[in-house]
Every structure is written in structure tokens, then in C-alpha cells.
């Protein structure tokens, strides 16, 4: 599917950047404060929506089936939707297949469930390399896939945004959905990381 890559003066990203520059220039806000807010939405506030979706899928088999068959509708059940969501397709990781999400031509991203895209996701290095050498890129994130696990890369578009349903870690059978959501990371829902079990499980 074709991407829409036009960037006019009406582009929200351009207008947002201009507003940021003006606020900093006027001394109304510092760049550190802006960076802290962006980091919160990138790593905590935004991805928690997706983490709750994942946790529900792990604990509710009927919801998991709905999520995999119609991600947009299932995510909307949780109250997460918006113009940036487009159609959300959820990709299930299995012991045999590991999914990774990218947008090779720009930075299409499922904002309603993952918040703001991290800087590395938008970088040319990630966008160009993960399709050609996914295992090497994953290794740079600290994820070494076993040789018998297939790495599948999915290219998001302006019409379809992908989200990964990561594997549920072992030793989490007694955890409720809230506790499970606390384990899920943004990177695991993009596919460049795994979900680690609770600290006690490592003992």
C-alpha cells in the first residue's frame, strides 16, 4: 500500500516543532521539560495502553481471538482508538515465529496503543536495516533469536499499523492482568525485545 509522505506547513509534526521552538525561545518552557514529557509518553504513558491490551489477551482467550482477527475493534473495546491508529493488525509471536514491526518509508506507528514512536524507530538506520538483516538489528537490542525461530518483518503503512502480541513469559500463571501489564514493554510490542518474567521468577 502507498504511504502518504507529504509534509506541508499544515503537517502536525511541523507545527508542533514550530510551537516547541517558540515556547523555548520565549522562555516559557525548557528543552529538558519537553524532553521529559516526550520520554514519558514514549516509554510509560502511551505504551501502557498496549500493555493492558496484551495482558488481557494473555488472560482472556476469547479476547485474544478477537484481537488477532480484528485488532482495531478489539483495541477499541479497551477504549483505545484515534486518527493515528488507522487499522491495527496484531501479530502473535510464537515459539516458532518472532515478529518485528517497522515503517520503511516514514514512521507510521500505532499511537493509540504505543504512544509516541521512539527516536530509533524513526531513524534511517533502523528503517533500512531491519528488513535486510533483522537478526543483526535484534542482536543490537540485546535479543538473540534461536536459529530455529523465524524472524518476520512487517512494514507499516498509512492504512495499516502493526502491533506485536509478545509471548507470555513463564512463571506468570498466578499474576492478574494488572501485574502482567506491568511486565510488558514498548519494545516487546514492536518486536525488538521480549517480555521478562517477574524478578522473583529468576530466583
Give the helices and strands, then pairings.
Blueprint lengths: L11 H14 L5 H29 L1 H9 L1 H7 L9 E6 L4 E6 L8 H4 L4 H4 L1 H9 L1 H7 L9 E6 L4 E6 L11 H5 L4 H5 L13
Parallel strand pairs: 1-4, 2-3
Order of the strands making up the biggest sheet? 1-4
Q: How many strands, what sense, and barrel or not for the largest sheet? A: 2 strands, parallel
> What would CATH call the homologous superfamily?
Nitrile hydratase alpha /Thiocyanate hydrolase gamma
The CATH topology corresponds to Nitrile Hydratase, Chain A
How far do the termini sit from each other?
Answer: 48 Å
Total separate domains: 1
The sequence of SSEs as H and E is HHHHEEHHHHEEHH
CATH architecture classification: Alpha-Beta Complex
Give the averaged pLDDT, no decimals.
86
What is the number of helices?
10
